[in-house]
Each structure stands twice: as structure tokens, then as C-alpha cells.
Amino acid sequence: MADFKSSKTISQLFDPNIASELFYLLLESTPVGVYIYRENFIYVNPAFERITGWNFSELKNKKVWEIVHPDYQETVKERILARLSGKKAPPSYELKILTPKGEEKWFEVSVVTFKKDEQIFCIATAIDLTKIKNYSRHLAETLSEYRAILHSFDGLIYTVTPDYHLAFVNKKLEKQLGSVRGELCYKKIFGREEPCPWCSLKEVREGRSVKKDIHIPEENKWYYVVSTPLLYPNGSFYALHLLMDITQQKRAQQEILRISKLESISLLAGGIAHDFNNILTAIIGNISLLRLRLKKHLTEKEEKLFKQMENVCFRAQGLTKQLLNFAEGGSPIKRVSSLKEMLEDTVSFCLRGSNVSWELSIPDDLYLVDIDTVQFGQVVSNIVINAKQAMPSGGRLWVKARNLESKEPRGFLKPGDYVEITFRDEGIGIPEKVLPKIFDPYFTTKKNGSGLGLAICHSIIKKHGGHIEVFSQEGKGATFKIYLPASKQEKPFSRTLIQKEIFKGKGRVLIFDDEEVIRETLKEFLEISGFQVETAKDAQELIKKAKVGNFDLAILDLTIPGGMGAKKVLPFLKSYTPHIKTILMTGYSLESQKIKDFDAFLKKPFTFNELFAVIEKILPSNSAKNVKDK
Ligand code: ADP
Q1: pTM of the complete model
Q2: Which domains does the chain have, with CATH numbers?
Q3: How far is CA 466 from CA 65, 66, 420, in A?
Q4: 371 — phi, psi (to 5°)?
Q5: Per residue in 118-140, pLDDT tens?
Q6: Reduced to 3 states, what is the DSSP secondary structure of residue 534?
Q7: pLDDT in tens, 287-302
Q8: CA 155 – ligand 1 centroid, Å
Q9: CB of 455 sitting under 6 A from ligand 1
């Protein structure tokens, strides 16, 4: 029942007759809806008519719950009936009604009861909550939309006060850092003692937006950053920072640039290297021949001179090999190989006698890889030699290999099984501005550097379907990581060792090369070894000799300028002498596809030991015999 405590004060203030007039005035003028009812409406004030849309004339024959929304109708009816029978019901609650037009409206109603002539009546106020409800629903929806956007964004979002304190961080950042509200952004996010050099807070404080790519050397990562001013009610600008990791895209861009530079150089390199190889083959051949002939009469000093000549030739051979890796035909001849031994040999070879110590950590169960061991050996040498040069006063190199199942694409690598090889040195490191250039051909910071080492590594690794990455900071050493796809095969290719022995052969050999010096050198060497040898400088001569020659073996140059090369003459040779064995020779590295019609392949320049190793393999009746070749 209504508690009229306050009416005592009113009756003290006002004459009771005026009080009822005041009550009526209040009812008519208040913006709050007031209504009196039992089951039916007995009275509604003008505000009630206005906010509900119902006129009293329409309401007076209605039960109160009839204008209530069906969702609330039962509850309201129960409560009204309870009150009218003297029971308790909640004094205020929220409900929805339906206007005459069928629109939904929200109200907060507060009810009291009073008795008159032994009957219970209800008097209630109704406050229109529709606008507030709609607004807060809209706000909640918008907020949850924004929240979803903020938290589903696969980047970092945070806001910062004008004095670098974190105000908000999105879920992704929160996961990495925990709860960081109020902490200094440069300290918590970037681990720095001072504001970051790329910070845009100054511009943002002036109300400007900033977009830029930033590089974080500590993580070797690139981010695209959008910084936007947020005006706070106190008039100051907070900064909203949005960071997207674009490291992969940046690396891809650099790769594309590198590849296009490499392609143009490869054309040039290929041509030079091919000619150079022919010359070298002749020089190496003649030196070996001369040495063999004079062997018994050579003094120690002359022997030393020969050694020096050979060494210079091998260095030149190394250079041509490097150039050829750029060349169009320079694709690797891959064989299933185990990296363990190869890494151990190459690293120790490159560092022996230096003041750099090394530590290898290579598991026995390392996956096999499909590699051209010569080319890949060059990759390892280049990296190890760079490390050695980066530690002029000595230091340590760590070489680690492990199996890696890459689920996420890394650079251009597809997900799959890889071998990861890491070379970490403690040398001078690479300054940030130099880092993007080190794989560029001819980029060097060394006085006598060629700038080809890493460009070649990059090119070779690409041709092996792999990837190379570098991490370094000036003064803090450098780490190179190589990823090579694991081989599908389980057994490594077994290599016939080249025997350092004089060869005793028999049989008829045909040499086909346009270079006279090569023909003659080879001829003489093979003859010394016991073969009968004929030569041909072009296809015409070859066909003529092959018709009658009954050869056991033909050594064929791949390309004869202006005429038929090895591939084209092969069918003629086979038609005259079906049992003939053939060796293809060229300065190019070839794909196995191109070699498949021949019994063997020799890459110029080759030593005679290499030639004999090949002959021994395809003509087993010939073999190296006992005599050592120094
Ligand atoms: P080069 O050794 O002839 O200079 P590279 O292509 O092998 O050519 O290397 C390019 C550059 O990369 C070097 O000149 C050097 O500045 C840098 N570099 C490569 N490896 C390292 C390393 N381990 N430590 C420091 N700098 C290195």
C-alpha cells in the first residue's frame, strides 16, 4: 500500500484543498506518464497519452496488460492481479508496450497501490526508455563490431597518451605482452630505453596522420605503420597506432629485384665462362701432359713451378664455375646427398690454419638433400670464408643443421620438410643499411672483394629450390640460414673416387671438339694411356671417321659453333657403331634431362683423373693401374 510519509510535509506546507489542485497540476504538466488502474485504465495523464500513443478514450475499455508487448504480457497481468488482491509485486521494472501502430516502446514503470472504499487501486509512473534503449543497443552493437575488428585484425593495434603511455592494446598485442596499460610503449613493445627513432607521436600530437614502413633491426622485421590522432575530451591527442607485419612482402620484393639483376648478369657471365672454360681445359690438359712427360727429370724447383701453375689454374677454374652458376645452362646436377660429411669437410678445409675455431652440430639423422655437391660446396665455402674475413682477429663459427617441418610458407618456400643450416659468427656484423644489398652481384665492402660470393650463394640456393636468410647487426656477428628441401629418397648417391693413378686403357676413341688444342691434348693423353685415338673438328669429319672407325668410345663436345653438336651427331654414331659408349663434355652444367642420351657427362674444365674415372665407369675393361700420379 502507498506510503504517504511525504504527504505530511505537503499538508504542513499547503492547505489540503490546494494540495489536491497541486497534484492535478503536476499530473497534467509532468513529462512522466502517470496512470491509475485496477484491471482497466481509470486515469491516464497527457504525458502517458503522448509517450504511449494511446488516447484515454481508446484505453478506458482496455485491460492494462492488453497494450503490453506479448513478451511481457503474462508477467504484467500476474503482477497487477497480485497487487489487486493485496499481494506483493516488484515496485518497478522495465517492460515493452505496443503503440496503436504496433511499434515497440520501452518503459520503466514504478507502481504503488492505495485503498479507496475498501478497493485496491494502482497508481504508476511510466518513463519512456525507448531512445535510451535503442541508443544503448546501437552502442553495444557498434562496440562489439569495433571490438571484433580490433581483435580479429592480424596486426598490432594500440593507443598511446601524449607522453608515451599505453592506453589500449588489442588482443594480439596483449597475448604477447600481458597487461600493459599505463606502461611506456617504447619500453614494453620495442624493449627500448628511449622513444623509437621511427616514432610519429610528435606529428600525431599536432593532429597529423602518418603512414610509413619501418624496419626493426632487433627482430629483422618490417612493419607498415599507420598512426592516427585521436582527440580526447581533455583536448589532447592520443595516438592510435596500427602495425602490420610486412616482412614477407619486403623480402619477396627484394628477392624479385635480386633475381632480375641476376638474370641480366647471368647472360653475360654464361658467354664469357663458356669460352674461358675451353681455354682452361686446354691449359690444364697441357700442364698435366707436360708434367707427365717430364716427370722423371723434374727438379724440386720445377715441380714447385708446376704446382703453382696448377694452383693458379684451379683458382681460375673456381672463378669460371662461379660465373657459370649465373649462366642460363647453369642448372645444378643434383644428386641425393648427405650434408654431414660435406659440411664437415668444407668448413674444416676453409678454416684450417686460421685463427677462427669452429663448432659443428649436425645430427646423424639429418634428412638427405638433392644437391649439386660442387655448387653447394661453393655456397658453404663462400659463407665460411666471409665469416672468417669478418673475424680478422679470430673468433668462433657455429655451424648447425637440423630437420625442419615448415608448416607456414617461409619466403618463397612451400610448406614441407627442409634441412635448415645455420652459420653463426661473432664477427664485425653487417650494418642495417648494408644488409639489403649483400646478395646483390658486385656488392662488396671489402678492399679486394668481388661481391659475387653471396650473389652466387643466392642463385645456387634458388636453383636448388631453397632459401637463404641473413640476420645481423653491426658489431654483433652475422647469422646466415639456408633452407634446402629434404630429399624424397633414402640413400645417398655413391661417388666413384677419382684415383690418382696412371690409367692403362685399350680401345678406339673418337674425340669431337672444334677447339684444336683440346682435341690434341686429349688425343695425346689418351694415346699415352694406351688408347687408339682419332679426332674430328666438325660433324662431316666425325661421320666420315665413324663410318669406318669401329670406335668403342666417343668424347663429344655439346656445342660446335655453326654446326651440329653432340646431340645431333649422336644418332649417326649409334647407327654406325651401336655398341659405342659416349661421353658428353661441355662447359655448362646441364640438367639430367639433356644428358640422358649419353653414357656419361664431363664438365669442362676437367682433369685427366676425372676423365679416366668416367671412362673406367662406362668401359669397365679399362682400369687405373697401380702407378701413382703425384
Ligand atoms: P665479398 O666477400 O667479395 O665482399 P660477398 O657477396 O660474399 O662478396 O659479400 C658481400 C658483402 O656482405 C661483404 O662485402 C660484406 O660486407 C658482407 N658480409 C657477408 N658475409 C658477412 C659476414 N659473415 N659478416 C659481416 N659481413 C658480411
Answers
A1: 0.44
A2: 31-132 (3.30.450.20), 153-245 (3.30.450.20), 335-485 (3.30.565.10), 503-626 (3.40.50.2300)
A3: 77, 77, 10
A4: -135, 155
A5: 899 999 999 999 999 999 999 99
A6: strand
A7: 878 887 787 788 888 8
A8: 34
A9: yes
